[in-house]
Amino acid sequence: MALVYMGWHVSGAQYNPAVTLALVVRGDCPGSRAAGFIGAQCLGAAAAALAVAHITGSGFVLMPGADTGAGTALAVEVLFTFLLMIVIFNVAVTPRTAGNSFYGLAIGFTITGAAFAGGPLSGGAFNPAVGIMPGLVEWVIAGRTEVPFWLYLVGPLIGAFLAVPLFMMQEAAAMRGAAGNGGSSDAGD
Length: 189
What we know:
7 helices; 0% strand; globular; Glycerol uptake facilitator protein; mainly alpha
């Protein structure tokens, strides 16, 4: 949570390539900025993986649970990345919540809940940089090849991209509702 608040004024707290690409698709982040963000996200994840390997003497690689099939792990990555993206859109992107002070709590608790609920099943990346870069570092350093790179690329991207049209429909409905309520989008008015 603290990192969301800390990084907000720098990059919009974009630490996740799936989030960044969904923001690009929706038009909330220029592609030219996104390339730099994604590069920094991947470098940060690789640096963290190298730090863990140096400190502990062994690498850290996300893997699905031993009894979790690929389809289940993929579904978990899609679902929780989708939920994360919907939360981000609703607390940090929509003009209706602009200037709020709860965005970091909402995003942080979503990631925490996803990690607790989905982590044992899929490994709990919900972020391509976090899922891929530690495995890539371990592959380069130790030759470890069983890391399911595809899972941590495909799952989060599908989840984030599925959130885009849903949020756009939600925003369109809110705007229609605001027009019908004399400009207020609050159903309690």
